[in-house]
Amino acid sequence: MNREKMQSFSDKLHDSFFLRSESEAKAALFGQPGALLPQRRLRAWKALALISYLVMLAMQLYAIFSFKGSGHLINDAWRYVRDAMECHNAGVWYPMAEDFKVVGGLAGTGWVNLMVLLFHFTTDLKIVYFANLLFVQVILFCTLYLARKITGSDTIRYPTTVLFCLFGTFWSEVCVARTEIFFTALAFAALALAFHRTRWSVIASGFLLCYANWVRPLGVSFFVAILWLFLMLRSRPLVCVRFIAAFCAGVMLLSFWNYYHGGVFSYQPSVGSGNFLMGCNEDADGSFDKTVFNEGKAGYIPPEQLEAMSVDEINKVYSDAAIQWIKENPRKFLLLMPKKLLLMYVTETYSGEIWFDNEIQTSGRDYIVSLVSILRGQGDRPLEHGDVIMMYTQGFYMLVFLLFLIGVMWSMKKGYWRSMSFLYGIVLIATAVCMITVGAARYHFPYLPILFITAAAFLDSAWLRKPKKG
Fold it and tell me: Which terminal CB of the chain, N or C, has fewer other CB atoms within 10 Å?
């Protein structure tokens, strides 16, 4: 009797507004086999997809072999490489005990350890760049798999491949030794395995997402999305239990790893509190501005006091200062959110430094302003090939983002938005986190596959599958 009641409740839940079946709507849009579609159009998309993939590989290899800025790393990459090299030279794994004393705690733990492993073969950074190239292929495969599973279309892989492979950021990011590519590969592999829903794929999904969160503490949005996915797919409770158990077991194992190697039982210390304060202080402008830690500012801690404090104590000072400012300035806090949103989504030039051998910073407003000056003939340097690639990358990103927004509205109009809701949820949660902390363009990188899937679903159903006239 209890089982019957539970089944009845489950049926009512899945017939509700949020979980109502969309099989008929998707069948009408995506169900027709590709063999029955206009073949000339289909052949054109197939050829374009293949050409796009070859272009991406060629540009990635060109970037790896032409890049000469490995000795002048910038942004977060220099710290990851420094920490990995120190551990390699000392013959240990990350973290060492002294790494916990760095302001903000550990950073990119899972990524740094992967680099330590790679450095056992060679300390040439090209091995890291080739690893990034392979992880981009993982992201592409998982994106194609998810697009196919969500829509049921056997042709969506063509527009998805075109949008993915012609996206200039994937060409250059391979030579940036940051966490973006590795985290995204792990997170979307976890999503794909969760969708597969076999016993071992669900367990592997939990472990992979846990490891992803060890690389960057952004796993919460994917964790919630996977649980929502299980609910949408009417998965048995045991499926959720396996996933959660695997994730928690991974947290414990990695916490013991940190304890064994660094002497502190901690899963993922992060710079989150520092970002929180940078986004919530009197001088905050929504960007990654570190002036709040200067002397006389809210985040300043005297050096002698800083040395005697633990990472947790330092982070508490930062978070307390940020919370206090929000309480005293709720209106200013809310008015900063549109600026953070703009900074997070308006540009796509953050990985372009490699085209200039790391001699020029391409992220942020300053580069855009200088590029406009160069185009007007008023710049202090000539236009370079890196500038051309950045203009292309920015333009193509704006096109993809526009198609994403159209795709969201299209999914609502055509009645398949619930099937996409777990992906939309990832974007919403991630964006909300940035609205609380700081906005930066590269923070949207891990969610690019969602833009491609949504945009490709629109192109597939509205264009590629459009009935032939006459």
Answer: C
